[in-house]
Specification:
The protein is mostly helical and 138 residues long. The protein is built from six helices and no strands. Helix 2 packs antiparallel against helix 3. The N and C termini lie far apart (116 Å).
């Protein structure tokens, strides 16, 4: 009597790789379609869908792309579970906050800079030209 595992047709590593590649490509296509469909449904482009789409595109690169996509997926799932926000939403909030801080600091610095330039220009102007009432006005 033959054992079932000996009589079963053995698949080569190439056949297993081809099958897993098909499954991976289908999941990758779903990863591309879902953010696009969500964007079309909501009719607005947001950071979450954009980052998900980019990471799904990176996931089609064998080796490093798979690792990057896997790490992002696990990290994104972890951030959704714990603080109830996606990782890209956190990044967007941080970038917006940092941009506002930078913008406010730059505006303050430029205001001080131009106030000093205007003071130097006004203090260097001749006083006789400012007090002369008989000078023609053009």
């Amino acid at each position: 009597m033959a054992c079932w595992y000996r009589s079963a047709k053995k698949k080569s590593a190439g056949e297993h790789a081809a099958k897993s590649s098909k499954i991976g490509n289908r999941l990758g296509c779903a990863g591309l379609i879902i953010p696009v469909a969500h964007t079309l449904y909501t009719q607005e482009v947001n950071t979450e869908d954009t980052v998900d789409f980019i990471v799904a595109c990176i996931g089609f690169t064998p080796g490093a792309g798979w690792v990057i996509c896997g790490i992002y997926t696990v990290a994104d799932a972890g951030t959704v579970v714990v603080p109830d926000k996606k990782m890209s939403t956190h990044a967007e909030e941080v970038l917006i906050r940092k941009w506002k801080e930078f913008n406010d600091g730059l505006r303050a610095w430029l205001q001080i800079f131009f106030d000093r330039i205007n003071y130097k220009i006004n203090s260097a102007a001749p006083q006789s030209a400012q007090s002369n009432e008989h000078s023609p006005v053009y």
